[in-house]
Amino acid sequence: MIHRWWRALADQPEYGVTANGFVIKGIDTILGELQGRARLAFGDDVDLTSGSPLRKLLDAVAWQGHDLWRAMEKQYYANFITTAEGSSLDRLGQDLGISRGFLVAMGQLEWTITPPVPPDPNRTYVIPAGAIAETTPTASTPAIAFRTLEFAKLSSTTTKQLVSAEAMAQGPGGNVGVGAITTVNQGYVNAYLNLGSAKLSVNNPQPFTGGDVREGDSDYRSRLRGNPRALWTLDRVAATVRDLPGVRDCRVFDPLGGVDVSQSYFNLFRYGQRSFTGEPPLASPYYFDIVVAAQPGWPWHTDSGITGIYEEIIDAIKELRPVSIFPNILEANQVEVGIRATLFVRPGHDLDDIRQQILAGVRDYISSLGLGTSVLYSSVLVIARTTTGVVDVQDLHLRRCPPQIAAINFGGALFGHSVEAAVGENLQINADEVAYFNVDAKSIDVQVVNQ
User: Fold this and answer.
1) Which end of the chain is more exposed for a tag (fewer CB within 10 A), N or C?
2) Chain segment 75-93, per-residue pLDDT in tens
3) How confident is the model at residue 184 (pLDDT cuts 50, 70, 90)?
4) Rounded Cα gap, residues 40 and 18, in angstroms
5) Among candidate residues 156, 247, 242, the one with its CA nearest the CA of residue 199
């Protein structure tokens, strides 16, 4: 008898907190239970048809109970980072010491070139993506910096061009009004532009907005899930650096495990009851390497009022590193990616527009790659082939153009010469390299013809 009772109990469905998570009780189950209680109280012949007053009352109570179950389910899943939403996710982030961040303000900048007199009709002034412009500082308000997301081509015939841009710092401070951005950062001009006697000016015809908006649950959840729980690990250092503005990706190289005690080789091997190697003396400095890939336009060192990435990293990790262990911060080698291909399109399509769409798509794809991530031939082919109007893609080759001189060399890469991969071959990117794509580079040879 007891055995049958336990078996019947085990066959009952589980609701609430179970081994598989929270199982909510459905509206049909709740209504059925209420109807069963009503028969026990009023007899089996009680009227429970859809039009009876008692049934109407039970339906209302069932829906109220179902809402209660849904609230309990939401409350249960609000305790976990992977399922929490809204304010519940904010509270979990507060426990980790990571608050929900702001987005960057977005808008458009208008570049204006004033050519020399007399103007050179053959001169084209290219303002690359990442160019920095600023608001005019006052005695109480420092300059707010913005960087462009697109390149601009100016000449004596095309003296103005609008490009999209974003604030270099997150938060509502980037929400500036019309005409607030009036200065081209002089440090950027000196380092990257050769304008000759031409004059470059900038303005924003529309306000910048969006800086007061908080990041969404998905992005915030990803930051919380990727946050290491231990303080003295390489993962913690890497996560802290990646979270800084202007950092595209980073890798930490520490072969001896000096900063990561979970991987430390010190004092682990004994030979004849003696340590094979002792712990490093407290006063003896130990260095580990942080290889950083920066976003276009961000200065490596502080210049013209803009804090450099190098100084930002030093300040961010000074509380993370143990005593006598110091970071050696290195800028990643940038590998320019080029492509060669012939595209066949349907008649009636704008050939130049299709070419620019494909190059913009390839740029967005490559910009999403981190350090040491190869450029996939298949991804570039899909971008080109799925563009509206394209019928066929032939003779597609990827090109790898490393810098002339290596800033660092951890992966044995070759420098100073370009390589064109065979059809179907990926571009291998080493651990100390990052791929970037310039839509105006000489390494791009894309021919677009009608079918």
Assistant:
1) N
2) 888 888 888 988 899 998 8
3) very high
4) 29
5) 156
pLDDT tens readout for residues 160-182: 999 999 999 999 999 999 999 99
Give dist(CA 406, CA 433) in Å, integer. Answer: 10
What is the DSSP code (8-state) at residue 91? H
Per-position DSSP letters for 56-83, written without gaps between them: HHHHHHHHHHHHHHHHHHHHHHTTSTTT
CA geometry: angle 445, 402, 399, nearest 5 deg = 30
Query: Rounded to two decimals, what is the model's pTM?
Result: 0.69
Q: Which of 91-100, 241-250, 399-408 has the lowest mean pLDDT?
A: 399-408
Q: According to DSSP H, which parts of 197-308 are helical? A: 217-225, 234-242
- The reply to whether 438 and 369 lie within a common domain is yes
Distance, CA of 102 to CA of 110 (rounded, Å):
25
Query: Roughly what angle, to the nearest 10 degrees, separates helices 217-225 and 86-96?
Result: 30
Cα separation of 392 and 342, whole Å? 8
198 and 232 both lie in a single domain = no
* Same-domain pairing of 352 and 324: no
Catalogue the long-range contacts made by 305-308 (C-beta closer than 8 Å, 24 or more residues apart).
305/134, 305/137, 305/142, 305/143, 305/145, 305/185, 306/132, 306/145, 306/168, 306/185, 306/187
Q: Which two tokens stand for residue 131?
A: 């160019």
| Residue ranges making up the domain that contains 425 | 333-450
Helix, coil or strand: residue 363? helix
In which residue are the tokens 């990293």 written?
313
Q: How many angstroms from the chain centroid is the CA of residue 131?
A: 20
CA atoms of 150 and 281, how far apart (whole Å): 51
CATH code, 319:
3.30.300
DSSP state of 427: B
Of 194, 203, 204, 163, the C-alpha closest to 439 is 163
Q: Which of 187, 203, 219 is the last residue of a domain?
A: 203
- Please indicate, yes or no, if residue 343 is contained in any of the structural domains: yes
* Same domain assignment for residues 173 and 64: no
The reply to whether 353 and 446 lie within a common domain is: yes
